[in-house]
Every structure is written in C-alpha cells, then in structure tokens.
Design goal:
Layout lengths: L13 H7 L1 E14 L4 E2 L3 E2 L3 E19 L7 E6 L2 E2 L1 H13 L10 E9 L10 H19 L6 H15 L11 E4 L13 E3 L6 H4 L2 E5 L10 H6 L7 H21 L2 H20 L10 H17 L4 E4 L5 E5 L4 H11 L8 E5 L5 E2 L4
Parallel strand pairs: 5-7
Antiparallel strand pairs: 1-4, 1-14, 2-3, 4-7, 4-8, 5-6, 8-9, 10-12, 10-13, 11-12
Bound molecules: ligand 2P0.
C-alpha cells in the first residue's frame, strides 16, 4: 500500500491535541462528467474510467470540530445541515467512517461535530454527493494532518482525499482537484487508478480553459431512481461490456481533442456519453427514464439553433433530466441568446450559470 493510502503514524500527543479540540473547514465543488462513470466492480471500484471538470459556483462547505472521545469506541458524529441537526445523516456518516478506519487511524478516538451546507438548493436537481463527500473527505484528512507525526506532501494529500471521497461516493473522488480530472485505470493516463482520481497530465487547449457549464433546470424534484440503484442495474445489463469499452475509447478520444483544442470532436463525444448513460438506464431491467419531455425539447431546439448560428455549444446530462450546456468563454454572447429561448422549458425558468473551477479551498490547514 502506498504512503498515500495507508494510515500514517499519529503524533505522541494527538490525544492532548484532541482534548483541546481540532478544527477544519473545506469548500469543495460539484463536478460534471464528460465521460461517465456508470457501473461498479466490488466496493466503489468503477467499471470504467471517467473524466470530468470541477465547477466553480456549485459547492459544499463543511466544518468539523474534532474532540477526544475518551471511550475510544468508534467514531461518533453530530451532523448539522444548513443549520438543522440531522441525526439520520449522522448515523450514515458514522457507517461511512467505520469503512475509513483502515485509512484514518485517529477515527476511533474522536467525537466529530460536523456542519455542512451547499450554496445551491439541494432540491434543485443538481448532484450534491460529489461536493458533499469531497468536502467531508478533505476535512477528515485535514484533521489527520493536524494529528500526525509527519505531514503528507500535497500530491499524497489530494490522492488520499480522493480515495476517501471515492469510498463515500464515486464521482466525489474527481472533485478534490481543480479543472479536469479523471478516475479509473486507463492506458493513456499515467498514474491513473481505480482507487483515486488524478488531475489530467496535460494543459487543455484554449477553448476549454474557461469552459462554461450553464445548467437548465428542467425538473427540480428529487429523481425517482437513485444513482446507487442505477449503478447496480449495470451488474447484469445486456449492454454492459459494450458500454464499458465505449467509455475507454471515448476517454482516449477526449484526451486527444482536449489537447488538440478540437471542439467538434469534444462536442460529439460529450453528447454521445450523455445519451449512452441514459440509454443504459432505459435498457436496464427494469428500465427507467430520467429525462423529461422538456429535456428532449431543449436538445432539439439547441441542435437546430447552434447549426443556424454556428455556435460552439454542446450538452451533457447527469443522472437526471437537467441539461448542462457546455461552451467556450468566447461563445458567451451567442449562447446567451439561445438560452433566452430555452428558459421556457425550465422549471420556473431557472438557470444556473457556472464555469470550470479552481478546485477545493481550505479555510484552516492546507
Ligand atoms: C458521473 N454519475 O460520472 C456519473 C454520470 C451520474 C452520471 O457518478 O454510488 O453519486 O455514490 O458511487 O457517484 C453518480 O453516481 O454514485 C455519478 P456512488 P455517484 O458523474
């Protein structure tokens, strides 16, 4: 096991530090996948590699105050979400922390007061598990840093944070980095791993540097089938192998077009990935549809308008009905005109403007 994934030696006075109280606070973003993770092998191991970029405006802030739990009988948690105590979630976090015992040696000795909040409404139909789990992972690791004999270097810190986030929610492991990152073993990406995400090892072309992601909120209700169930339905899916092979090939192509600044190929792969993801859902057993009639209306309208007006804009979908419009910064004005025609299909006309982000931020320790 590498230094980044194994438990580190706690300092001799870690209990004194905990008696005084250890604090941390991290802000961590959501991300949007271009090559989609859909299907698992074993415990939180992806069936195929994926690639995403972190967002700027959609994030979670998590604060933890860690105290000594003198009974040392396992991690204990109190959890407050947006100012309200949530005991049901606290017990879910305690289960998650039990999974982390091999990775964070201090956990049996602590009582954690966790406070968390999002800057986007959690009912808005935007995935919050990636920002929430990455903020939690970074905070838990930051507490460890303050209790260790020797500090992790930056690279090891983020890899270990990514591994911990992955155990909470797969897509979260990509959110610990700025910009584009990928997760899952792939021959074209040196150091790639199924255990954690890595930042991409090249500079993307200028079209992707300040890429925008405008989210058209078609439906703000919680989705009918969770991603956890969706992943499970890939287990005996008749098209699973073809889908996993397609993702591997698309990741190679995506790497090339990001390097070569090739928008058209980028758009084509991104849209194929979105449609394949939803095709997997529709052809599962039982099949289900997360897209809304307005999702398709927007796709039709967008495809027609971008052709007429020669605009570099494409769409992707998460596991839900809301459209993410992706476009280079320089297309801002032209896309704004198209968006003004698309809000008629959005729930309460709602649109969230976001861009590629600078990654997580620490408020105290790193
Ligand atoms: C992704 N999604 O790559 C894909 C595309 C949604 C669509 O990963 O069970 O919440 O927590 O590991 O990460 C959503 O699934 O699943 C997801 P878990 P997760 O972003």
């Amino acid at each position: 096991m590498s230094k980044s994934t194994s438990a580190m030696t706690l300092s001799s006075d870690f209990k004194d530090k905990l008696s005084e109280g250890v604090n941390t606070c991290w802000k961590s973003p959501a991300n949007i996948a271009l090559v989609k993770y859909w299907g698992k092998k074993g415990h939180q191991i992806p069936a195929n590699p994926s690639l995403s970029f972190s967002l700027d405006e959609a994030y979670t802030i998590t604060r933890i105050h860690a105290k000594l739990n003198p009974n040392a009988n396992g991690p204990k948690v109190s959890f407050t979400f947006e100012g309200e105590k949530n005991p049901a979630f606290a017990s879910k976090i305690e289960q998650f922390l039990n999974d982390l015992l091999p990775h964070l040696e201090y956990l049996p000795h602590v009582y954690l007061e966790i406070e968390s909040g999002n800057n986007f409404p959690h009912s808005a139909g935007i995935a919050s598990s990636a920002s929430a789990m990455s903020a939690l992972a970074l905070s838990l690791l930051c507490i460890e840093q303050q209790l260790l004999e020797e500090q992790l270097d930056d690279n090891s810190f983020y890899r270990k944070a990514s591994l911990i986030a992955r155990l909470g929610s797969g897509s979260a492991c990509r959110s610990v980095y700025a910009g584009f990152s990928m997760w899952g073993k792939h021959d074209d990406f040196k150091d790639s791993s199924d255990n954690y995400a890595i930042p991409i090892d090249f500079k993307p072309g200028s079209l992707f540097e300040n890429i925008h992601d405008t989210i058209l909120l078609v439906d703000q209700n919680p989705k009918k089938v969770s991603s956890r169930v969706g992943h499970q339905l890939m287990d005996n899916h008749p098209f699973a192998k073809a889908r996993y092979d397609q993702a591997v090939t698309n990741l190679s192509k995506m790497r090339s077009c990001l390097i070569e600044n090739d928008w058209d190929t980028f758009a084509s792969i991104t849209e194929t990935e979105a449609l394949s993801l939803h095709a997997m859902m529709m052809s599962s057993s039982p099949g289900y549809i997360l897209m809304h009639p307005n999702t398709l209306k927007i796709v039709e309208h967008l495809v027609e308008k971008r052709k007429q007006n020669h605009v570099n804009v494409c769409y992707t979908l998460d596991a839900g009905p809301n459209l993410h419009l992706l476009y280079p910064e320089e297309e801002n004005d032209k896309v704004a005109l198209i968006i003004s025609e698309l809000t008629q299909y959005c729930s309460d006309g709602k649109v969230i403007y976001d861009t590629i982000g600078k990654g997580p931020e620490n408020k105290h320790c790193k």
